[in-house]
Amino acid sequence: MRKVICAGVVSLLLAGCATGEKMRRLDAGMDRQTVEKQMGRPDGFSEQDGYQVLTYKDRLMSGWSWDRADYQVLLKNDRVVQYGPGVVRQNQANTGLVIVAPVR
């Protein structure tokens, strides 16, 4: 049971890390399908003057930061042209007391 709880905690931590780190793995020229496979379904989509913009809102910048950002991926002909963070929101770390009880 203890191993299951530890595995659950680790997977939650790893799942929370991410958008900024995932964004670093994008490359110009990637197709939209690959971007969505790596980043997940976008929170927003817009199209203007032949460009498409995938928007990922209020995502953690890294697994070790409480800061959040909106990320955009700019596509032309379903290929990545540019990508990166937009609005960045700095948050204070949650400094509340956490009590961990051993499980036997």
From TrEMBL:
The organism's superkingdom is given as Bacteria
What is the name of the protein in this document? Lipoprotein SmpA/OmlA domain-containing protein
